[in-house]
Amino acid sequence: MISLASGEALDTMNAAALQRRLLSRVVGLVGPNNAGKTSLIASVYDLLQEGPVGDIGFAGSTTLIGFEKVCHDARAASRRGLPHMERTIVGAEATFFHLDLKAEGQDVVSLFLGDRSGEDYLGAADDVARADDFIELRRADTVTLLVNGEHLTGTEHRHEVRAVSPQLIEALVEGGAIREHCRLAVVLTKNDVVVGTTNAERTRRDFAEIVATIAERHSSHLSEVKPFVIAASPKSVSGLKRGDGVDNLLRYWLSPTCNSTSASAIGLGVSSRMMDLLAPNQESFG
């Protein structure tokens, strides 16, 4: 009997088993609802369908149906008047979107994008003990914090975004969800909205201050804190193309880290990462 993948986003056990095949990178996406997490996942998938993103080409996926589901409502085929992205269900277990990618002159790398409700992550800021549940962050090579550019440009949510973003990383580090020497990418999303306002320069200063605050507080814990600016699904009036800046972020996710593990080590369970050590009959990472 041949077991075929369902094509849906992977649970923890299936993601762990699949990771053993090839060199892999795991990305944990963190941010409140409406920060642009689902839009970013959809953007990466859609950009690869058009061809290589920079020098990175598509080499396969076991979660094509999952990708199609998150992309559908943002396409004309959905017959919606405006692009729409479904929210991840609050309280649901983390799932993973999988892509095999190949840069020119390099081996294929499996990328796993962790997906969990933004409200669950925000809960960790109020209760640090909840951070222990975020296994997709504990095993990540790169944790990616999304900062809502649209909220940062206005007055209603600006101060909240400036305060909550560093607090969220503080809670995740204190709770052990972000392991020592992990990389952190801090991403300003919805840049199409930012460039279309009179507060663009102020927004960029606010974003730089958020990045600097996180880097200063956690320089001894994180190996690197790096900023990115993207427009995953820009409005046509902005003049930015879909996925603006996503290529730089994707290249960073795939780049080697001090914690990256070779495929041969993964196959034998030699890696120090919990995801690589997981045997098929284990129920959790412990």
Structural key phrases:
286 residues, 7-stranded mixed β-sheet, 12 helices
What is the percent of helical residues? 25-40%
Q: Count of DSSP E strands?
A: 7
> Could you name the ranges where pLDDT drops below 50 across 5 or more consecutive residues?
76-85, 260-286
Encode the helix/strand succession as letters: HEHEHEEHHEHHEHHEHHH
- Derived from helix and strand composition plus strand pairing, the structural class reads alpha/beta
The average pLDDT is: 83
Identify the overall geometry.
globular
CA distance, first residue to last residue: 32 Å
As a whole number of angstroms, the C-alpha radius of gyration is: 18 Å
Q: Give me the number of helical elements.
A: 12
β-strand percent reads: 15-25%
Task: Give, in spatial order, the strands making up the sheet with the most strands.
Answer: 2-3-4-1-5-6-7
Biggest sheet overview: 7 strands, mixed
Describe this protein's structure.
With 286 residues, the protein is of the alpha/beta class. Helices cover 38% and strands 17% of the residues. The chain is built from 12 helices and 7 strands. It has a 7-stranded mixed sheet, with helices on both faces. Helix 2 (37-50) packs across helix 3 (64-72), helix 4 crosses helix 7 (158-174) and helix 7 (158-174) packs parallel to helix 9 (200-217). The protein is globular, with a radius of gyration of 18 Å.
Would you spell out the secondary-structure blueprint of this structure?
Layout: H1 12-19, E1 24-30, H2 37-50, E2 56-60, H3 64-72, E3 95-103, E4 108-115, H4 118-126, H5 135-138, E5 142-148, H6 149-153, H7 158-174, E6 183-189, H8 191-195, H9 200-217, E7 224-229, H10 246-254, H11 263-268, H12 274-277
Parallel strand pairs: 1-4, 1-5, 5-6, 6-7
Antiparallel strand pairs: 2-3, 3-4
